[in-house]
Amino acid sequence: MTAGPPGADEGSQRTAGRVDPGGRNGGTGGPDGSEDPKGAGDPSDGALLAAHVAGDPEAFATLVGRHRDRLWAVALRTMRNPDDAADALQDAYISAFRRAETFRGEAAVTTWLHRIVVNACLDRLRRARTRYAINVPQAALDLAEDPAH
Q1: pLDDT digits (tens, 9 = 90+) for 65-102
Q2: For residue 22, which of 54, 2, 48 has the smallest C-alpha distance?
Q3: What is the CA radius of gyration of the chain?
Q4: Long-range contact set of residues 141-144: C-beta below 8 Å, sequence gap at least 24
Q5: Pairwise CA distance, residues 117 & 91, whole Å
Q6: Which pTM does this prediction carry?
Q7: Domain 14-145 has CATH 3.30.365.10
Q8: Who contacts 66 (Cβ-Cβ below 8 Å, separation ≥6)?
Q9: Domain ranges of the chain
Q10: Residues 6+ apart with CB under 8 A from 108
Q11: pLDDT digits (tens, 9 = 90+) for 4-44
């Protein structure tokens, strides 16, 4: 059994063969941040992000909860390890939380979050790759330093 983010099964519904967090198909609402007609009066993703930037302490948690299953799937598919995926997803959430005011609205909020998750995963993979070291036997080092060989 693979581990998922805490509470990953809460509030999800299946629609057309894919997980739709919070029972919304998209949940992005209008481009002006208006109410989402599919979400029965729930604020759109854009409105939640704007509310977070304005200081609403619950808005970001609601936004992340709405998309957590999809973001978890992206992290797990990229990292291929549940522990590493959870760490990368946490990095992504922190980054999105801190940099929400930089969202320009040129793409859907879900696209923005997806990109942040992918970048967090790639950053972790790069860091892991640069830390990889090979133990070289001393004899090989001695041969490399000896100009006679």
Answers
A1: 999 999 999 999 999 999 999 999 999 999 999 999 99
A2: 48
A3: 21
A4: none
A5: 8
A6: 0.64
A7: no
A8: 21, 22, 24, 27, 45, 48
A9: 14-145
A10: 26, 28, 45
A11: 554 444 443 333 333 333 333 344 444 444 444 445 689 99
